[in-house]
Each structure stands twice: as structure tokens, then as C-alpha cells.
Amino acid sequence: MKNITELLNIKYPIIQGAMANVSTYELVSAVSNAGGLGVIASSGNDANWVREQIRKTKELTDKPFGVNVLMMSPHAKDIARVVIEEKVPVVTTGAGNPGPYIKDWKEAGIIVIPVIPSSALARRMERAGADAVIAEGMEAGGHIGKMTTMTLVPQVCERVNIPVIAAGGIASSKGILAAFALGAKGVQSGTLFLATKECPIHENYKKMVVKAKDTDTVITGSDQAPVRIIRNRMAVEYLRLVNEGASFEELEKITLGSLHKAVKEGNMDEGSFMAGQISGLIKEVKPVSELIEELFKELKKDMKELKILWKLQ
Ligand SMILES: Cc1cc2nc3c(=O)[nH]c(=O)nc-3n(C[C@H](O)[C@H](O)[C@H](O)COP(=O)(O)O)c2cc1C
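A: This is the predicted complex of the input protein with flavin mononucleotide.
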């Protein structure tokens, strides 16, 4: 089985997870230039917007990068074509079944990596021709599944013969080491990259992540589409309304536009600040290259310490 750095032609086995309204060309090119894989989040945007992001990324880096396609997007079909036309090296997918597109992407030489919340879906993706899967646990920021990274990753590794990339709660060298110990061949982080200089979000968003403690995230959204965000006035109000059995319309009143309020306006009371449980470990905002270099330098140290420990016993 190929390792992730060979498969993706990158220096370090770390993917910057797609982040809706966040991972645009500025962050993506910075991550790819630093030796990881940057991924553009297409979220609900149309194909022209995605094409522009791809071209801007290419102006800033000659390293591999990816595009995340949300299968539920009304623009998914057009974006699926644009990634082929623009010769994007890697596609990650979320929110639905990418099965119908995989054959065309593979024929175009694209590496296809679906994000999956269960081992059954991982198997299905392997059979459909995926090159690897990203197993994402519910510690993660943003839209989440039901399993934890600790339980999902080893079970997916047991059931597929393609490389598994672990996501959800990884923001340190020890987290990466743990992912490898569970059988993963690489990691995907989202929350960690929110606290970087190049991340094009409001400074207040970065402050929220840096200030958050381990228990400061809550799950909002519906049962079918839960979303992990940092607790603030909006989140508390949302959960209160849910408890009181509020209607969809009532809930929508406070959620509509809340992502924009977080990302662009930095409105700490009314914004929806998507971030994961690992926020508590993130203590400062760093340039992307410094962050990645440090992570893997630390990883070497951690591995040495582990070896010493092992010898002592
Ligand atoms: C702000 C934010 C937005 C996200 N948007 C997307 C998205 O559009 N598509 C997707 O597949 N995953 C999305 N994710 C998930 C990330 O790609 C990644 O898998 C996740 O953040 C990993 O867990 P971590 O936050 O604990 O590092 C998002 C995560 C965050 C924090």
C-alpha cells in the first residue's frame, strides 16, 4: 500500500481539511507550499467560483492541492467537470455519494479521497474506486458523524485495503502519532489551520479558537446534520430553543447568515464559529509553514521518546 506522501506527492502526510467559506486560495496555497496538501472548500459555491479559486491557487503554488466537492450541492455536477478541466490533482468529497463521478475523475488522473463517517461507507468507496478515504470522527469542527476518531479509524483500517487518513481532533504531533498507531497513513486537520496567519477569517474567529477550552464546543444543527461549533450566545440560544421544541423557522432566524457573521464580521455573539474539540490545545496563531515544520519536528522527538520508553520496559 502506497503511503500518503507518495500518493499525493507531498512532503508531510497532512491534509488541510476543506473548510466552507474558510479554505480559499490564500490558506490552500500556504499549506501546499509548506509541504502539506491544501484543499479548497467549494461548499455551496458555483463552478465559476471554484474555477477562479483553482486558478488563484495555481498562481501561488506549483505544489499539489485539492478541491472538496460536496455531493449535495446543486453545483456538484458542474464542479465535478471543472476539476477535470483545470487538472486538479486531488478531489476530496463530502455530504453524499461521489460514486457516479469517480470513474471520470480516475480517467482524468485525479486522486479521489472521500470523507466517510463509517466503515460501511469506506468499503463502498473502495469498491467504487477511491484511492484512499478520510475517516472523520465527531470530535471534528463543522458537520460531523456519530463515531469518535478513536473508534472509527481502526475499524475502517480493518475493513479496507486502501490508505486511511484520520481526521477529527488532531492538532499536535502526539495526535498524529496516535493516528498512525490506529492504522492511519496520514492525517487531516481543520481546526488547527483556523489559527494560522494565512487563514482568511476574521481575527475574532482565530481568538475564539485560541481562547477555547477543551469543553467549549457544542453540537447544533439537526439530528440528521449535526454541526460542532464554539459555545457563544448564539449557540446557547439555539440549544435553548431546541429544548423548548422551537420550529425550524424559529431556529433559522438565528442561524441564517451566522457563518458569514463569524467568518467575515467576527461577530462573537451572533456568529456560528465552527471548530473542533481540540481547540483547547491550540494556544497561538502561527504562520502555516512554521506550524507544519514544528509539528513534524516534534513528531520525530515523540517517536524517539516512545522508543526509549519501550526499551525501558
Ligand atoms: C470551519 C470548518 C468548516 C468545515 N467545512 C467543511 C466542508 O466544507 N467540507 C468538508 O468535507 N469538511 C469540512 N470541515 C471538516 C474539515 O475538513 C476536517 O475534516 C475537520 O475539521 C477535522 O477535524 P478537526 O476540526 O478536529 O481538525 C469543516 C471544518 C471546519 C472546522
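Residues 17-20, 22, 41, 43, 68, 94, 115, 136, 139-142, 167-170, 188-192, 274-276, 278 surround flavin mononucleotide (CB under 6 Å). Residues 288-312 form the longest helix (25 residues).
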